[in-house]
Design goal:
heterodimer; A: mainly alpha; ABC transporter involved in vitamin B12 uptake, BtuC; globular; B: mainly alpha; two-stranded antiparallel ribbon; 2 strands; about 75% helix
């Protein structure tokens, strides 16, 4: 009782949790950019940024895929192998059999939607199902392309390396993606319903919305983002490799969570997630600028994720 | 029939054994030249590792509230490398086991601190700690000898009357875990926390220390798996733990332990481990490539999940 009144009486602070959710990743990214610029001043130019952000596109889309799953409070442990699968399909078929490639990619998106429907229909934990499916994606990738190789058409390579005036394309695209995702998830009525599934599924269902459709749709959207991640990665790598995507599972989860997503309650922040993805990207560059062996890259990425969540807990303690 | 149904409702582990038995029968016509005994032995050898890592995961999952140990692959890899390199040193096999247990305890304590003190959801906490462990393994693997001492390797593949020693030890360990879950305060606290953590707390059970101990046990099981797996195949590799994340969870879930927690079936872990190993063996006998093997394993696991009874809310 007393707790509730005090909550209601307290004036909303300027740094409410929702604002902190976006402010913290922005500040963290700025700090990292300053550190990067200090260590390697040459980075602070158009070409420097283009190089620095080179691999941001696949990570950005993979993080958005993870974000779609996090909206309903699920987690996707299979996005990495899925990106590999898309990469293998693109490198094997896009150049010679574009139709086959298109059908395969659309099929992959539908497979993702079906996975979401399956999780909802059988009321299974997403962690187990997506982990099981990760073997299916990896197996399929190995079937399409048992060893690294294949070719990616020149237009895709040109598109991922496209140089926009003044601001590098990855930065522009990040802003566009953040805007679109923010609008779809945070501003539309159905986006609110979808977030409601993550917060209180029973209430959303009683209000007449189909959880099956909601989950299938979000997983389908995740599949679509996963396909975009695979396409851009193919354009950058210009070849197919069944193991190439493995790192994106951790990176996408870390990016989305650092960017303000909670693990429950349908709480996500698309804008924060874009910053989160950039933080994960810069973390590895920063290591190499600091002359630290890349052996420690996983430690740093895992450590960053833990640190952010630990700080969140601490801020709750301090707030009390 | 209805009494059979009632019996299987509480003994769902039987399905995994029936599945394993069916696979064994399917496999018979394909066994050209190889004796069934041989296939059985190899299956038991690898099932032992699945069970070793699965028992720890089972205890964690039985805690409920989203508890799961995703740091398993990192622990396996690190313990594999450190254990093997210690085994060639002055302290030998005993030192290697000690090192593995220490790594397991360290991983478990780390997870417990992240989850209980810093309140990080178990999934994310163990995922990140697993990557830290993996990265430690990568750093350690540079210049480390990844070959087991002859004694350690001999122990890890030694057989008693045709059955690997490790399998016998693991059967005893499974019985112990089963007994502990039923009979001891610790075990009952694990299951009670899984059924309702609030009720368990209000009853005055020491839930927090129980959760910490369970994560430490899971770490030790995973670390010993890493040590003996690396020793039995003659060397550690950086991706040796990779498949064990899915397998450790799959043997638990397919073995009839509820993913929502509150119940646990060590017997089912054995059944599911045999089921998985036999399906991989069957695929190997058929001579399929790695792609089909991954694909089929994934489909089997997802398929079994699909036919099991949906959770009742």
């Amino acid at each position: 009782m007393s707790k509730h009144t005090s909550m209601a009486l307290r004036r909303p602070s300027r740094l409410s949790p929702d604002r902190l959710r976006v402010v913290v990743p922005i500040l963290a990214l700025l700090a990292m950019l300053v550190a990067t610029g200090f260590l390697q001043p040459r980075v602070m130019s158009y070409f420097g940024f283009t190089l620095l952000l080179r691999y941001s596109l696949p990570l950005l889309f993979a993080t958005m895929a993870q974000l779609c799953i996090l909206v309903v409070g699920d987690i996707d442990l299979g996005i990495g192998p899925f990106v590999s699968l898309v990469n293998c399909i693109v490198a094997s078929w896009l150049a010679d059999q574009p139709w086959l490639c298109g059908i395969a990619l659309v099929g992959a998106i539908f497979a993702y939607a079906a996975m979401g429907a399956f999780i909802q229909y059988r009321r299974l934990p997403s962690i187990v199902v997506t982990l099981g499916f990760s073997f299916i994606w990896l197996g399929a990738a190995l079937l399409v392309r048992p060893t690294p190789g294949g070719t990616v058409p020149d237009w895709l390579i040109a598109a991922t390396g496209f140089r926009t005036p003044l601001v590098p394309m990855p930065a522009l695209l990040a802003i566009v993606v953040a805007f679109i995702a923010h609008h779809l998830i945070m501003r539309t009525a159905y986006g609110t319903v979808l977030r409601g599934i993550g917060s209180n599924a029973a209430a959303v269902e009683r209000a007449g919305w189909s959880l099956l459709v909601g989950r299938a749709l979000l997983y389908g959207a995740a599949g679509f983002c996963g396909v975009l991640a695979g396409l851009t990665l193919s354009g950058l790598n210009t070849t197919g490799d069944p193991w190439v995507g493995a790192q994106y599972t951790l990176l996408s989860i870390a990016g989305a969570i650092i960017g303000g997503a909670e693990f429950s309650g349908g709480i996500v922040s698309p804008i924060g997630a874009v910053f989160g993805a950039m933080i994960m990207l810069l973390s590895s560059s920063l290591l190499s600028f600091l002359n630290i062996s890349t052996d420690w890259q996983l430690s740093l990425q895992g450590g960053l994720l833990t640190l952010v969540l630990a700080l969140r807990t601490l801020s709750v303690w301090v707030g009390k | 029939m209805s009494s059979f149904r009632r019996w299987t409702a509480t003994h769902s582990w039987i399905w995994s054994f029936l599945g394993a038995g069916a696979l064994m029968i399917v496999m018979l016509p394909f066994l050209r030249g190889q004796g069934i005994e041989q296939v059985g032995q190899v299956a038991i050898q690898f099932a032992t590792f699945y069970v070793m890592v699965g028992l720890g995961q089972m205890l964690v999952i039985a805690l409920g509230s989203g508890n799961i140990d995703l740091s398993v692959p990192g622990t396996i890899t690190l313990a594999g490398f450190v254990g093997l390199s210690v085994s060639s040193g002055a302290t030998g096999t005993l030192g290697a086991c000690g090192a593995a247990v220490a790594i397991g305890i360290g991983a478990g304590i780390g997870n417990a601190v992240l989850i209980q003190v810093l309140q990080i959801p178990p999934m994310i906490a163990t995922l990140s700690s697993g990557f830290v462990l993996q990265s430690l393994a990568i750093a350690f693997s540079r210049g480390a000898s990844a070959v087991p001492s002859p004694l350690l390797q001999a122990i890890s593949v030694h057989r008693f009357a045709g059955v690997p020693d490790l399998a016998i030890i693991l059967i005893l360990a499974s019985l112990t875990v089963g007994l502990v879950l039923r009979q001891t305060r610790f075990g009952r606290t694990v299951l009670a926390s899984g059924q309702s953590i609030r009720a368990a707390r209000l009853t005055g059970l020491s839930v927090n220390s129980t959760i910490a101990i369970v994560y430490i046990l899971s770490g030790i099981f995973a670390a010993l798996t890493g040590l003996f797996l690396a020793a039995s195949v003659g060397g550690a590799s950086l991706d040796m733990g990779q498949e064990y994340l899915l397998f450790s969870i799959a043997v638990v879930v397919l073995g009839g332990t509820a993913i929502s927690g509150g119940e646990a079936s060590p017997t089912g872990v054995w059944g599911a481990a045999l089921l998985l190993v036999l399906s991989v063996t069957l695929l190997n006998i058929l001579g399929v490539g790695a792609g089909v093997r991954f694909l089929a394993t994934g489909i089997i696991i997802v398929g079994v999940l699909g036919v099991t009874k949906p959770r009742e809310d």
